[in-house]
Every structure is written in C-alpha cells, then in structure tokens.
Amino acid sequence: MTPIDPAALDPSVWTATCLAQVERAVAELRRGGVVALLEGDQAALLLAAETVEQPALATLQGASTTGKKGEVRLVLTSERTQALQKRGLSLPANLPADDVRVLSVGGALAAEAIRQLADPTVAAFDAQALGVAVVGDVSPAFAQGAIELAKAARLLPAAILVLVSRAGLDHWVDPAFRMEARDLAHWRRNAASNLRRVSSARVPLEGAEEAEIIAFRPHDGGKEHLAIIIGKLDTTRPVLTRLHSECFTGDLLGSLRCDCGEQLRGAISAISQSGNGVLLYLAQEGRGIGLVNKLRAYRLQDAGADTLDANLQLGFGADERLYQPAAEMLQQLGVGAVRLLTNNPDKVTGLAQCGINVTERVPHVFPSNDHNERYLSTKAMRFGHMF
Ligand SMILES: Nc1nc2c(ncn2[C@@H]2O[C@H](COP(=O)(O)OP(=O)(O)OP(=O)(O)O)[C@@H](O)[C@H]2O)c(=O)[nH]1
Ligand SMILES: [Zn+2]
C-alpha cells in the first residue's frame, strides 16, 4: 500500500483515515492477528501477548529468521517487568527509567509461556528458566506503540514484536493492518475526544423524574459517554457535577466490592435535591483498564494485593483514566464551572487541567461494608482520597 501523504489530504480526511487504520489494527490484535507499525524503512510486526496463539507466533518467528533483523521480542511495561522481577525474572541492574521494556525471549518460546509472562493471574511459572535478557535496539516508537495498541484493545499491556524491513512486509501482514508509528500520536489526540452529540432522550429516574440522557460518541467510534442532566440546568452559576466512571459490577449488579453503585444513585439524588446538575457516566470501566482486566485485578486482590498494586502487577498505571472527554462534554453542555461531587483529588486537578473551573469539591462519601472496607482504605491511604 502506498503510504498516505498527510499534506496531500484534507485534514479531516487524513484524521479519519489514520483513525480507521488504528481501529482496524486494534480489532486485529484482539483476534490474535499480526499488525505492523512502520517508521522510516523499518517495520515491526506485532501480536498482542494475551491473544497470541501458536500459528501466528510461528509467522513472527518465520519473519525473524527470514528478515535477519533480529529475534522475537516481548514488550512489557516497566510496572509488569518489576512484578516479574519479584517472581524471579533476573534483569541487569541500573536499567534506564523507561516506561516500556523490550525483552528478548529466545526463538522457541511457546505461545502459552508468552501469555503467562503477560498475565499475573495464571499459575506460577519459572521466570528464570525463560532466560530473558534486555535488548535495547528497538525504536521507542515501536515499543511504546505496541503497548498503546494493546491498551487500546483493552488487552493486557504486553506484545510480541519482530523487526523486519519495510520492503518485505507484503509477505507477513495484510496491508489493512499496517500503520505509521507516528499516526498513533495523532490517534491519541483525537480518539478519546472530538465527541459528537448523537442522541438524547428524556428518561425519568427514581428520585429524579426530570432527567435527560445525552449520548456523546468519540471520534474513533468507541463506546459512547453519557451525560445525565437532572432538572433544568442553570449554567449561570457553578453546576453541581459528578464524574462517574462506569462500573458494571457495582452499578448494575450491586457488587459490594466497591462503592460505585451507592455513589451513582447517591449522586443522582444529591443533584436532584439541589435542584439541577449533571452526572457524566464515563465509559472508563475499571479506572480505564476495562472490565476483563478489572476482573483480573480482583483475582490479584483476592491473593493479597491491594487495588493499586493489582493494577501495577497487570502492567497498568494506578489509574488510566483521561479527563479530556469529561471536560469536552461539559463544554458542549455550556458548563464552564462546576462544584464537583468527589473524594478523589485527581479528578479535581484532572478536570481543571482540561479547562473546567472547579470552584468547590463536594464530598461524596458512603458507609463501607465488610467487602469494600479494604478497597476504601486503600483509596484513602494510597490514592489520597479524602474521606
Ligand atoms: N482497576 C480497578 N478498577 C476498579 C476497582 N474497583 C473499582 N474500580 C473502578 O473504579 C472506578 C470507580 O471510579 P469512581 O467512582 O470515579 O471513583 P474514584 O476515582 O474513587 O473517585 P470518587 O468516587 O469520585 O471519589 C470504576 O470505573 C470502577 O470500575 C479495582 O479494584 N481495580
Ligand atoms: Zn465499582
């Protein structure tokens, strides 16, 4: 496929083309297929570690032998590498403080062993026996791009990578699944934002009968975020606002592991009682790691980790949420200043950094139960929540 020259295209066409390429690659990684990142005359063939199966792995191993560009590498976040070190992986001392680590895993490692290296919730394994060593000759654009694509696919942040020359790509990967590494930065800027208001309806809620739900669709076609307007919005003064991150288990099933269900219904009634306000229901399940990874985090918590360390063991940051979509929804609703219902100081600073004036933090605390006491105390001790 001839590379697209951005200068020759209308910016909106260019953006749409580049976003579509990233989205196709993300879907392909989820189904265990090979995608390619390009930079200059170099290319990196990628597989997501979580979905790797033997036939696709054999393709990458074949490319590594034929391409003579080097062996199969495993790309992990530094958080995941540190967790593996605690389980016996030996790495050279004094490594640079990189976000992402590229490891050589030898030519013969089986798909199952790769999945185990990515996933701390599977049975214990002998990390030392894998003989993993650090290699440093992979472009950061490839290594970071691989992790970014895996996260965008809501998979574990780990990938398999092989370097090949751009000229020989046709043999290894379908043109539909190739993209310039630099397009990822463009995608990052546009995907989560550029929200388009797609539909809205009046939905009377228990305790807030005058309510309207407005759906905002991200530019990348991802899951919609919802704004729930309660009462008649008065934007002439700071609006009572709640940013609620989706929690399937707490919001829908009434899970006692967290406080989300109570916070959701509590926010609706607090806003209703105050007269008017907004609840943003953000498609950022599991502090942005997705439901499946949150279930993995719960397994790690059942084995002793707290909610923050569980995220790190999986290879994620403590909190992967972005505040840009929330700020953009508020701006589109004409809300420039808010009184924010939260105990989380990061929400206050995150929203303020995205241009919303947070005039006041309104505490949003509910009593604990036997199942969520540890979760809530971790929030206070390690995330700085103000209870
Ligand atoms: N990764 C991870 N996410 C969790 C866990 N427990 C709950 N969540 C998610 O955390 C998010 C809860 O976010 P919020 O209700 O916005 O709460 P918060 O950031 O603690 O801040 P406030 O409630 O505003 O004080 C939801 O997306 C849940 O799915 C967990 O153990 N691990
Ligand atoms: Zn929850």
From TrEMBL:
Binds 1 zinc ion per subunit. Catalyzes the conversion of GTP to 2,5-diamino-6-ribosylamino-4(3H)-pyrimidinone 5'-phosphate (DARP), formate and pyrophosphate. The keyword Mitochondrion does not apply. Its EC number is 3.5.4.25. It comes from Dongia rigui. The active site is at 319 (proton acceptor), 321 (nucleophile). Its cofactor is Zn(2+). GTP binds at residues 242-246, 263, 285-287, 307, 342, 347. Zn(2+) binds at residues 247, 258, 260. Residues 197-363 form the GTP cyclohydrolase II domain. It catalyses: GTP + 4 H2O = 2,5-diamino-6-hydroxy-4-(5-phosphoribosylamino)-pyrimidine + formate + 2 phosphate + 3 H(+). Belongs to the GTP cyclohydrolase II family. The gene is ribA. This is GTP cyclohydrolase-2. CDD domains: GTP_cyclohydro2.
